[in-house]
Each structure stands twice: as structure tokens, then as C-alpha cells.
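Hi R.,

As promised, here are both runs. First protein below:
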Amino acid sequence: MECAVIVTYQCNARCMMCNTWRHPSLKEEEISPEVIDRIQGTYKRLNITGGEPLLREDILDIVEVLNRKTCRLEISTNGYFTDRILKVAERFPNITFRVSVDGLPAAHDRIRGLKHAFDHALRTIIELKQMGIRDIGFGITISDRNASDLLNLYHLCAGLDIELANCVMHNSFYFHKHDNTVEDFDLFREKMQQFIEALLQSRRGNLRMKVKDWFRAYINSGLLNHMLGKQRSLPCGAATDTFFLDPFGNVLACNGSDESWNMGNLKDASFEEIWRSEKAEQVRQLVGNCTKNCWMTGTAVPAMRKQPWVPISWVLRNKLRLAFGKEVCI
């Protein structure tokens, strides 16, 4: 399985597409590393997220607990607290860092509502790279507000030889948003298609990164299809292959639903009891009947691993189309 641990709802940013910062968790309400340690199993991937996770004063203890449970521990951060991030990297140089940016400097600072936010994010990446941390990259939430920066940001990442993860803005309980809309959809679609083609024609020198770009193109085709209102190409594994742990100890199906689909609380029961409970089965039924067709990396990648022939065939088919001068078939 894969799991995202939301360690806090506190955030220093004021993002346009997310109102979590308006609903911060209280420090005394947030679960301790000891409670977080109650999630059982060895995970393919664990993600530490928020809010802004570096606002947790005990972030090093949280990382220590979760790093034992996975071969890949990732921290999603806005990169503002560079010194705190570097302390984590010094102690745990094997973990992954994804620094959120929402375009080049002007767009990023405007969308994040945080002065000099891009400068902090870039400095964090440069410092991590100088330290020799291998798995680092930016992550962007795409909308029509920043779509015009998407290709340039990708080329910046390719030049720095770092990753570029991405999603599109969503509406859900997690973001406290239900009015996120793309106003200039023609621009959004055009820039997304250009981005998908650039990923399929990746010019990275590193073969592993090049191949990852190809399959990220498939992920982005799913994101575009989601925005077009189309069905997911692969079934959602929320509450089966993946789950979220919120700052209060609740085991949640995902972060994309309109309401919080809670399977139980680690303060009241063991993870095994929660995972096999009747309440968890009821949540899985909700997931099975869900019509939102969300397409987020957290559910898309595990689905791709379960049915690898689907993304592989898509990549091969569309690389051939590009080779013969045809458009990508989304």
C-alpha cells in the first residue's frame, strides 16, 4: 500500500486554490509520532504532507518513525523553511523532497500569497542538490493561472536534472474548496497538451528520468481527461491500495472526496482493527460508487503498477504518433 500522512493543517502560505490555511489544526490536537507509528506494514511509498509539514516542531521524530516503514519516504513542502528542511536532509539523506511551486516567480508568489516564495523554494532545491540529496524536485498544481509557465518550469527542472511532479486543482473537503474552476479552458488545454508532448519527447540525458517523463505524460493525460469530465482510465484504489492519515489520527480513504470518508481513529483502535472494520468496508463502497473521477498521483501511480500494460501501451502508441507527425491521442 501507499499512505499520505497529513501531519498538520497549519500553513504559512495563502494559496488561491486551497483554503486549508483558513482551517489550521491546533498544536495540541495534532497526533504525536507515537500515534503515527501505529500504522502497520511496510509501504511502497509514504508521503508526509500538510498544510506545511515543516511547521511541526517534532518533524525529525515523525520522519524517523515513518522512514522505518518504507523504502521511499517523501516530504511535500512549500520550501519556505530552508534551514529546517536541510536539518531533515542532513539526518535522513535517503528521503525524497518535493517542493511546491506554482509557476515562475511572479505567478508562484501571486498564487501562493507569499512574498519571495519562489526564491525560498529555489534556494531549498539548490541547497538540497549541493548536499547531494538525489531524489528532489518541484511539484506544481496546474490551473489556467499558471499553465503558461508550465513548459518553462519543466525545462528549468530538466536543466537542473530534478523531477517535476504535478496535479491539477481539485475541489474537496481537504482543500476546503468547492469553487475551483478553470476559466480559460482553451489555454489550459493547449498548454497541457504541449506539456504532454514535451514529456513524451523528453530530452533528458538521464535514461531513468527520461522514462519517468514518458509515464508522467500518461499521468497528465489522465489529469486532462479529468478536467474534461471523462472517466478514469484505471480504477481508483483509495481505501484499498492507498489511504490518508489526518492530523487528528483519522484513517481516511483519500483527500479528493467532498466529505471526509473516515474509517476509524488510531487513538481508539489498532490499524488492523480499523482496516478490517465494517466502517472501512462501508467507505470502500463509497469509493466504488464515487463519480468524481479524481486523478491524483496518489491513486494513479498504484493503479498503474497494478495494470502496467495500460500506461505502457499508451506511451508506445503516442510516441509512434508523434514520430509520424500526429497529435497525441489523449
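And here is the second one, sequence first, then its C-alpha cells:
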Amino acid sequence: MANLVRRPKIGLALGGGGARGLAHIGVLEVLERESIPIDAMAGTSMGGIITALYACGFSPERMQEIALDLADLRNLLRFLDLTPPERGIIRTDRIRAYLAELVGKDRRIEDLPIPIALTCVDLYTKKIVYLTEGNLVEACMATSAVPGLFPPVSINGHLLVDGGVLDNVPAKALRNLGSEYLIAVDVNHFLSEHSQWSDLPKDATIRKFLPAFALDFYQAEIIMISTLTNLNLSKAKPNVVIRPPIPSDVNIFFGFTHALDTIQHGVHATEQVISEIREGIKPKLRLFG
């Protein structure tokens, strides 16, 4: 006797990486085009913001429009406020106001049509915090609060910073949301036989603005994040890991001007695994008796 078992609940984890995270828009574009349903999402930093926008009903096409708008340096610079905050080096008032304009200043995570978790790290407890309820704008600000760059965000007694410190691709959070088939997107993967900077042009924007010691510090941080990400993914065991081959010149600091190319890297990387995903989520016949 055979019975058709339902498809598994599908979860999508989107990792952090600054402008590199725009590749997630391309991933979502392909998943929508191929009618792959998403039952839950988790995200960190830029991946968290895109998770929030998608859960609010923003289509990949609309998110691409926003990204291309930010690709214009004149529009991007309107968010830059170097008036020193109490912590960090860049004030986030303008970014917070823009997010509130997009999603609504009173929008709450638990009211979204898709269950989501936004990843942060609590500086008090030194532990990962998955935000699954509360004010959406504040959660977005917390998950993307890069330590030293943006000020931490205080929520419910926690002092929260960018979740990439401990869990940059939060596939584990999807298990907590009941997901059975996990798709993880790692846009910050640099652990390979090539140096992170092997394809970084000598005239790359990041070299113009950051001194050599800062580049060394940044590279060391990326190595740590990549190592932790591999460890976390080995424990969470996602069914598919998508790693778009984004050039090193697109990074946490610079690269928004390459938005369209970065999105296309997400498209191409997802197209390469779409058959595997389709097969993995297909309802199966189970034999009884």
C-alpha cells in the first residue's frame, strides 16, 4: 500500500555580507520563477533586511528597483551621517527612517505572513539571539549593527549587534521555525585555495579608502566568519547551500554600485541547483504494510 507524503516545509536562510547580500534578490527571483514555496525565512545583516522585505510582500523585482536606486551614489550618500553617535562611527537615524518608510514603523515580526527570524548577538550574554517577534524596523537595525561601525541596538534588555559575529547564515534558526528542507545562501564564503584579495584590483574602491592594516583586520574578520559559518552549517545540515561567486570588490563597505551584477550572480548560482531543490521537495510515495 502506498501513500503520497506532503512536500517538506521549506526554509530559506540568507547570510550577511553588506553589498554582497544583494545576491539574495537574485536567489529569490529564481525561486519565485520556479514556483518554489518558502514557508519560513531566517536572515543575518543584509540577509536579514532582505528577509524582512520579502516577508512584508516586497517582490524580487521591487527589491531590485530599491537596490538600483541605492546603486546611484547620490542616493546612497543621503544615508551617510558622520555626526559621531554615542557608539560606533556612523549614525543610523536616516537608515532607520528609510526602513520605517518601507515596511511601516509599527510593523511587528509576529504579524508577518511568513515566519521569520533575524539573527543578532547580545553583547551582554555573548550569545546568539534570534528575533522572532517585536518591532520589525528595530530588529532590522539590530541584525545589521556591524560592531564598531553602527551603534548596537537595545531590545528587551539585550544589547544587540550584527548576527554575523556568531551565525552569519542562520540555517539553525529555520529548524526552530519548523522547517524540514533547508536552503542556505552564503554570500560571504572566502575559504578556498585563493586569497580573498586574489581578484581584488589594485584600484578597487576599498583599497582607496581603507589603509593596509584595516584591510588586514577586515580579511581576518572574514576568515573568522567563514570558519564559523562552515561549522554552523555542518551542524544545521542544510539540504542545499548556494554560494554565488561574487567578486571581492563587492564587500561589507563598498560595492552597492555593482548591484545589478551582484543580483545576477545570485540568479546564476540558484539556477545551477534548482533541479536539486525541485527533486528534494517533491512529495514522495511512502510504502506501508
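A quick note on the second one: Residues 3 and 114 are 29 Å apart (CA to CA). Let me know what you think.

Best,
J.
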